[in-house]
Every structure is written in structure tokens, then in C-alpha cells.
Amino acid sequence: MKLTFWGACRQVTGSMFHLELEDGYTLLIDCGMDMENAQEPQPHYPGSTFPFDASRVNTVLLTHAHIDHSGKIPNLLREDFEGQVYCTPPTLALAELLLKDSASIHAKKLKTYHKNKYKSGKKKVEGNPAEWYVDKHVNDSLRQFQGVDFNRKIKITPQLYATFIPTGHLLGAANILLEVEENGTWKKLLFSGDIGRNHYPLLSNPQTPPQVDYLICESTYGNRQHKSTDQSEEELEKVIQQACVETPGRLIIPAFSVGRTQAILYTLNKLYLQNRLPFIKIFADSPMAYQSNRIYERYASFLNPESQAFKEQHQSLFNFDNLSYIEKTKDSRALSGYNAPCIIISASGMLEGGRIQHHIKSNINNPNCTILMVGYVAEGTFGHDLLHKLKSLKVGSKEIPIAATIRQTDVFSGHGDLQDLLSFVGQQSPGTLQKLFLVHGEERSIQDFQQTLSEKGYQQIEVPERGQSFEL
Fold it and tell me: Which EC numbers does the record give (predicted)?
């Protein structure tokens, strides 16, 4: 069989792994959108937005719903993919939400693109119009999704079986175990997806995977230790006290609507019930977050035992008296005129789009505002620049100095840190594992992780480049 890496190579987004078996049967493990190098030209199969013939892909296996793992599935359907997309039931529900949001963004881009196409002097819309899909394409693709329960071995062909293993990180997220027979020999491959953390709010701990022959492992935090998730309540309480009580200001938290926002709202709910939260308004400014909350509530049986008990006792994981959901854009913008201390949680987490941008622009010059970054921000994004190098922000024709306090915490990061990754890889015997591929990490993180693993006896390590193939 041949494994080709078409995404998440020496970078964090765009997961896409192309596996062709000896009999010609072809799978994609994840089909994600590249959020980091979207402007760079990529090698394409003639007439395709993919570097391969999409119509020859037989099956897609999806580790989880995040758009950098699922975001190009509708493009497959547009290019005559006719197979099934297998994932867990919560992943299916969240993928529908995320893909429809992506389609909405694409529809706006297409409208602007066609409006300005023949006008001189107009700013070009970023991205490749050939890759933009709309709601119809999402609906078409969803008809080919099929939900699969965790730890249920499914027969894809007589020589190919797949099992989805719980890994935390996000509701429904999985490692994917493949068992493949070729020439009378069975081989096992494990695709990590994104590895979660122990004791993360709401989610179950990652399950121990079996011994395999080939491991494809993410490396997002391959050189970094996080603060313990056990500190999430204390960490958030401390920041709120400093940002909203000691200085009666506002706390703005950029957070992805699916996953991160649920962890934060659940933690705030627990603080509220323990009388540890000041009586200030909390605004969840994201319609998608509200819909995600409903999916988390619906699939509560997939959450950890503590969360299930909490829901049974309090009826809701997220809703409490201080919390208001903001649905309309005009109400979101009106928050700029709310002068009392408050907390605003809005998307997106890397500040690359969404309502968070106008909150940042409205408050960047406010010395009584704290902006708390709570997750990974990729290089080249507005969020990364704000954290590391921006001294001022251009709003319209004005250059506004940054007076707000910029803070960061990793306590809510959904990605496992170095210790979590070592624990995951450590389930594999160095003497039995034939090859270990490191993906989904920036180059420095991967290099450091590779060095650490080498010192622990793992020698057959590959760091693939985009488009590189390996015979297994």
C-alpha cells in the first residue's frame, strides 16, 4: 500500500492523508482545509482542486469535525466522489454545523468576487474561487456521511477494517485504527487525529490505543508542557478578578465556537454555581456556539462522567443567570456601548474572521480591556501577530496604538502537550513499530518532538513533506 501526505505537513492545518491499497482501493483519512498556506499555489490534478483524482477515492474516514480536518469534503463531492464518509455520530452533527458555516463564508466571498471581478482598483478576495462551495454542496455531501460508534470495528472491504477510538480533544473526536490485509499479511495503521488531554472540561480522557505497525501522529505541542487542566477554574477566576473586578473593565475571549467555547462556558457555569463569579454579564457572541452547545447537550452520553452527572443535577451544562447569547449582528455591535464590566466570548479563536474582529477593533485602545487568548494560534494569523509583534492596529485609515492588555493561557487548549503525546506514542513498542510519521505541527515543534522520541528509542521516524509518498 502507498501512503501520501497531502496536508498538515510541517504545519498544523490541512490534514489530508491519501492511502492507496495494493488492489487500488483508495481512502482519505481527513480532508481538511489548509488555514495557513491557502494563498500558496498547490499541485493539482488536472481539472481538480485536489492533487489527485477525487472521483477515484472510495472512502473518507474523518477523525473529527474541525474544519482543518473536514473542510474540503464538499469539494470531493463536486468532483464526483461517490463513496461514504465515516465518522462518529457527534462528529457528523458538528461537521454539518461547521461545513454550513464554511459554505456561508464562501457564498459571501463568491458574491464579492463576482461583483468585483471586472472592476479595476477593487481589492481581490483572498482564496481560490474554485474551492468555494455553498450550502447545496454541503447538503449533498452530508447524505454520504455515516455515523459509526466508538470501538466498533467496521468492515469496509473484506481486506480492510476501521475502528474509531476515543481521543478527547473535541466531542466525537477519534484516533482511527486501520487493519489491512495484503498478500496474506495483516498490517495495522493508526492515525492519531488530534490528541486530547486528560481531565479536560467535558471530554473523556483519551483511550489507550493498541500496538500497530505504522503510526501517523500529530505534533502540535511536541515541545511544550501545558498548565494542568485541573487549574482551569482557578486560572479563569483569577483572570476575571483582575480584568473585571480589580480593574472594572471588560474581558474579551476569542474562542472557537465548537469545542473551546463549550469548555469555557462549562467552567464559568461551575464558578457561578460555586458563588465564585462576580455578578457581571457574560455575553456568548456566537450563534454557532449556541448551536454547538445544543449538540453537546444532545450527545452528553459521549462526555465524561463528571459532565453527565453535572447535567443530570443542573439540567444544563452551559446556561446560567449571568449568561446571554447574542444572535443578531446589530446586537453584537451594540456591545461596544455596554460600559459596565463584562465578559465577551466570541469567534474565531485565531482572530481571522467572525464577530471577534469588531470587538478587538473597538477595544484595542481601551486600557481597561483584557484580551485573553485561550488556544493555539498559527503563524501568519492576526491572533499570532497580536500576541507576538503588533504594537498598533490599523482601523480604517487610522493607526491605533494597542492599549489593551493581551494575555494568553493554555489551560483550555484541547491539544495534548508533550507529555500527552509521549504517553500516546509510548503505547507503541519501538521494536515493533515499523514507521512513525510526525505531522500536524510547526517545524520546530516536530523537530524537537522527533529528538525526544529518538532519545526514547524510536528510530524509524519520518517527517513527510507535502506530496511525499511511502510504501508500507
Answer: 3.-.-.-
CB 88, CB 176: distance < 8 Å: no
R_g (Cα) of the chain, nearest Å = 22
The C-alpha cell that represents 34 in the structure block: 489548509
User: To which residue does cell 481539472 refer?
Assistant: 47
What CATH number is given for 230-408 in this structure?
A: 3.40.50.10890
Work out whether the CA dihedral 223, 347, 333, 294 comes out positive or negative: negative
> Do 230-408 and 2-224+414-471 fall under one CATH topology?
no
The torsion defined by the Cα of 266, 271, 275 and 281, in degrees rounded to 10, comes to -70
Task: Report DSSP letters for 128-177, one per residue.
Answer: -GGG---HHHHHHHHTTEEE--TT--EEEETTEEEEEEE--SSTT-EEEE
* Interatomic CA distance for residues 233 and 12, integer angstroms: 28
**Phi and psi at residue 229, to the nearest 5°:** -65, -20
Quickly list DSSP for 188-244. EEEE--S---TT-SSSPPPPPPPP-SEEEEE-TTTT-PPPPGGGHHHHHHHHHIIII
Round to whole Å and give the CA distance between 7 and 11: 8
User: Who's near 358: CB < 8 A, 6+ residues apart?
Assistant: 332, 333, 336
Res. 387 pLDDT band, cuts 50 70 90 = confident
Question: For the chain, what are the domain ranges?
Answer: 2-224+414-471, 230-408
Could you read off the pLDDT of 99-134 as tens digits, one per residue?
Answer: 999 999 899 888 888 887 766 555 666 778 888 999
**Would you give the distance in Å from CA 267 to the centre of its chain?**
20
How is residue 120 written as a grid cell?
A: 479595476
Class of domain 2-224+414-471: alpha beta
